[in-house]
Amino acid sequence: MSGQDLLLPLLTKLNALAGGVFLISAFGLVGIRQMLTCLRIYVFQSLLLAISAVILGYHHASIHLFVVAALTILTKVIIIPWVLRQAVGYESYAKREISQAINIPTSLLLAVAITIFAYYIAGPLLDAIGAGVFEKVNLPIGMASLLIGAYTVTVRGEAVPQLLGILAMENGAFFAGISIAPNLPLIAELAAAFYVLIIVLVVGLLAMKIHKTIAKTAVGEMMALREE
What we know:
By secondary structure, the chain is mostly helical. Helices cover 82% and strands 0% of the residues. It is built from 8 helices and no strands.
């Protein structure tokens, strides 16, 4: 028995732990209204994505997944939080609470329903691909996080929280993708990191303009930006 086979139970448990906390962080983005805390939760979620990528990269002996982990830490843990803080300002993040169309308890119940639905639709996919232990963890959790991120975009009324929802969707998609496509071409990984940075830069500049004009980042009040 090889050393990798001996480590398989440990790697499986570590990945399951990372996946469970990853899903909890998706609930955190729904249930927390303080903007700075939401940003920190997103950073933590991105770290969990990187950890899962390292675990799967070791299991599959895939350099591509190690690149995913490195790009995730560089872009989502370091660059993106810095850009967003520069866009609106640290004090605004620390003091601001996010407006939400649906109250927190109802949103959390809906997030639970979304998670159950994601596990339900993931079942046939897992059977179709002959899923192993890692796929059974990452695929449903990734799908649930993607759908919860989409829900977050729908109910949040401000530019930056909506952007965090979009980024959480991307995290969910990658969390599922690294398990079913461990040897994704490097060009695809680089392209994904590049487009995420472009989205963050554009929305960050937009949020900065809105904040300077109306002292908030509510997208519903973007008409205030029109020229006189």
